[in-house]
Protein 1
Amino acid sequence: MTTDLISSLSAVGPHDEQHQVPLDYDPSTCDGVKHLMETFPDLQTIPPHYVLPEALLAKPVAEAQLPLIDLSGLEDGSQCRAFTVQAISSACSEWGVFRAVNHGIAEQLVADMLEAAEGFFALPVEAKRALSSGDVMNPVRCGTGLNAPAAAYAGHYWRDFLRHHGHPFHSHIHLWPSHPPTYREVTREYLVAVRRMVLRLARAISEGLALQEDQLTRALQEGCQIMAANYYPRCPEPEKTMGMAGHSDHGGLTVLIDNGVGGLQVRHGGAWMAATPVHGSLIVNVGDYLEVFTNGRYKSVEHRAVVNKRRTRISVGVGHGPGLDTIIAPAAQLVGSDDDHGPRYGSVVYKDYVKSQQSSVARGKTALEALSLDGPNEPSTGG
Ligand SMILES: O=C(O)CCC(=O)C(=O)O
């Protein structure tokens, strides 16, 4: 929303200038929640579009005791390799998410990545508007709320985002934000380091699945890397809205970092739980591609983000999937011939899967359920 538009809105709708936005404020045409909070810094009630139905709201939740895995056990010659492989395998099948420590990504690089993301969100709205697009397959895209174009849905989420493709860099780096000036250099270095770690994990996962041929590592090696930086400003009424709705990621493995402000929640055993940040650790999520590839042995984790009254939260998630033109389906070696171990998912071109998942306003694991040959899973709700 431009300053002129704000002034004109301020002049029309009845409102308390300090504590409420104008009644005719329309978030589908606005420049996001960061800009909203900067424009109305004394806001005490959120605009009605952001108030979500009770069923979608987060209730107070218990702390998740996520598996914590020391990845130094995967280093060449480590005596602990078999133990670490087993720990990764159990975490992927029981939780679909774990915390990784001794992951090989320098603490300073993580801090620099978060600072680069923050620097991008601090740019003037015009710079961010230049990267906004309604096309969910655009290789660089800035926006607010869900990934789907805002006009397509009624509820709005308290988040601004920047998404862009990473590896292979030569195809995308020239499209990335050119500001802050260090953005491209830092982001590239971070994405290289994350990809290296993910490929080590993929090898360990293949080992855990006793796959003779490592199709998983090959698929991720030749595949795509998509980064999402999320900005959740402080929110005057966090209990009435959410930063991000519950969803699973479309790729194989996602690596998530944040600025130390809590907000991530994961769904485990049907219940939502808080995954409070642990300094020095990274969150690794199993995504839908890995669930399909393993024929359901590993489960993609449903997760969401809540917001808070005092502090801005920034997170950066980097997803790794197969090539966009790959047909995804259960790996033949993981499908048995008898009825009990037959294929549990159909096949689809990954690009079409990404497009349908990103365009949909239905969240949870609905995109994966549509591919399931077992029928619908347990429905996902708030709470
Ligand atoms: O901000 C978070 O913790 C969650 C981010 C996320 O789920 C995403 O970017 O897809």
Protein 2
Amino acid sequence: MRAIVYEQTRRVGVHDVEDAVLEDPTDVVVRVTSSAICGTDLHMYDGRTGAEPGLVIGHEPLGVVEQVGDGVSLVEVGNRVVIPTHLYCGVCFNCVRGYTAACLRVRPGSFGAAYGYAGMGAYRGAQAQLLRVPFADANCVRVPGEPFDDREDDFVLLADAFVTGWHATELAMMQPGCTVAIFGAGTVGLLAAYSSLLRGAGEVYVVDYIPERLDKAGELGATPIDFTDADPVEQIKEHRRRAGLPIGEEQMDGVQKGIDAVGFQARDRHDPARENPTQVISDLARLVNPTGHVAIAGVYVERDLHPAPEGSADGHLQVPWATLFNKGVSVNFGRTHDRRYTTRLRDLVVAGRAHPGAIVSHHGALDDAPGFYDRFDQRADGVIKAILRPNR
Ligand SMILES: NC(=O)c1ccc[n+]([C@@H]2O[C@H](COP(=O)([O-])OP(=O)(O)OC[C@H]3O[C@@H](n4cnc5c(N)ncnc54)[C@H](O)[C@@H]3O)[C@@H](O)[C@H]2O)c1
Ligand SMILES: [Zn+2]
Ligand SMILES: [Zn+2]
């Protein structure tokens, strides 16, 4: 089969590799119709995570089941399925409590796993023609319709981006009427904004500096904030004050919910050419109101091969702990427990109430992947979300 393989820092290639096959009775093999490229792949692409050359990458697949192991009872050949990024067993102590990204059985000696990701278990990636899916009864989520119908993009985003945007709003303990600020207008930030609006947020601000991404935030119904215009914290407070703060809440001119959809490769506000991994948490600590909540959905790594000056090789970062403590702000972290949300968000799509595919900017074949990676890494040419179609 053909697959996208990590070759070296800032270089991926299209390679012929061994076909994905059934290895355990509880596996299925899926023929991938769509496979998205994610900001998470860029942490590897940028040479930060120690990915080994030869790794098949990708963790956001939609496809059709082609082979079924003897021990699988809920999935059949021909089923159209989306596969959550973080694979899980479904029955361990953490899985049964809904913490599927911390499954205790998919990565022996540790917890949680993902397809095609350095340090997240020996599972080959999904930017390939075929994908082996372990514990298939748990990991295959059926979706209706036919491959390449008008919901193909909506469904592929259920693998990671939409559920992660939604998870961020859960971590932020979103309530109707809330004020929300989201840092990062990549797919995760945009779909966190979209999820916030679906959940009835009153005001949603999205901070970034890439024009096409800020425009997309505006199209979705959020207020875009360009951090290169001025301090984004002051811009948002000024916006709120101008609109008129509710009576009795004049001192609460920040926001109630803050979301980090950027992670450890955040850009420095004063010099976006360089990274500053504490930029976003510092801004959020200033912006979030007393009693508010911060959700950290952006990735932070325990092993960074080339840390920025404010960063560290083992992820020990200096954050404004005292400000957060004094304000009584709760900070919630983490990988998405995908499976909590996949079916409900699928049903929102099926009901015509959600259309996350609106943020997809590019489609291509596997051969287009090296170019997409390059332009996505530069955040250039309006590449927000590129979807590969490996079998077309
Ligand atoms: N928690 C999870 O399970 C999970 C799942 C998927 C992705 N992620 C992570 O979420 C993050 C975002 O993913 P994505 O696909 O949207 O990536 P992306 O790289 O497309 O988007 C990140 C955006 O952040 C912007 N940005 C950089 N510095 C900023 C700053 N100081 N303030 C505001 N915006 C800034 C960039 O310009 C970019 O548009 C990544 O770290 C990714 O690894 C986490
Ligand atoms: Zn992803
Ligand atoms: Zn488990």
